[in-house]
Design a protein that fits this description.
- The chain is an alpha+beta fold.
- The chain folds into 2 domains: about 1-30; about 40-195, no CATH class.
- The chain contains 7 helices and 5 strands.
- Strands 1, 2, 3, 4 and 5 form a 5-stranded antiparallel sheet that branches.
- The radius of gyration is 31 Å and the shape is elongated.
Length: about 200
């Protein structure tokens, strides 16, 4: 003897269980992928070099009183076409490199030759960097402003060249081979953290 009601109830329970299982798997997958929704930023001015080592190697190939501006262009250093190169005139160079006392005895010979050449001397200031900022952690804590964690990585390279009569007479470099920073912001009240201050600010 068959029991239609019992059979339908069993099938309903089975389908409900399967639906709950599928929904649970979908929700878990969605939550695990939420980290990909966190903001990410990038600041890149790394042409003509893709990393710090390449930039420093290019600097090492420059020899004062031997390297010409034509050879600089072969290295990708052309103030007219290469991004993020500042051309310094004689007044800029004096402000940056000449000591306040005006005594140039302790200066590098290349700087002294630049001072003597005056307006015939130019400076090239190269600022190359690659900075990557990425928010990590729990998406919902970040989204609701309870906890935000930002990782910053990258590198920065600076180079200063003085040129007289299309020939490099002085060079100097600096920078950060490896940038690695972690910034964490915690707000116990989440989106309500600044609510009290905003209300008090009205009175």
């Amino acid at each position: 003897m068959s029991c239609p009601d019992s059979s339908r109830s069993a099938r309903y329970s089975l389908w409900r269980g399967l639906l709950a299982a599928v929904s649970g798997l979908y929700l878990a997958g969605a939550l695990s992928g939420c980290a990909a929704l966190l903001p990410r930023g990038e600041a890149q001015t790394s042409k003509p070099w893709s990393n710090f080592s390449q930039a420093h190697a290019a600097y090492e190939r420059i020899t004062p009183y031997r390297t010409t501006t034509a050879q600089l262009r072969q290295e990708g250093i052309d103030p007219l076409t290469t991004p993020n190169i500042t051309i310094l005139n004689y007044a800029d160079i004096v402000r940056r490199l000449l000591p306040p006392s005006g005594n140039d005895l302790a200066l590098d010979p290349g700087i002294r030759d630049c001072m003597q050449a005056q307006t015939a001397c130019r400076g090239f200031e190269i600022d190359q960097r690659h900075i990557d900022r990425k928010r990590v952690g729990n998406f919902w804590l970040d989204f609701l402003d309870f906890r935000r964690e930002t990782i910053t990585t990258g590198w920065r390279f600076n180079m200063l060249l003085l040129v007289v009569d299309d020939r490099v007479v002085y060079k100097l470099w600096g920078g950060q081979p490896e940038i690695s920073e972690v910034e964490t912001t915690r707000n116990p009240l989440g989106p309500l953290q600044g609510f009290g201050q905003s209300v008090l600010g009205r009175y």
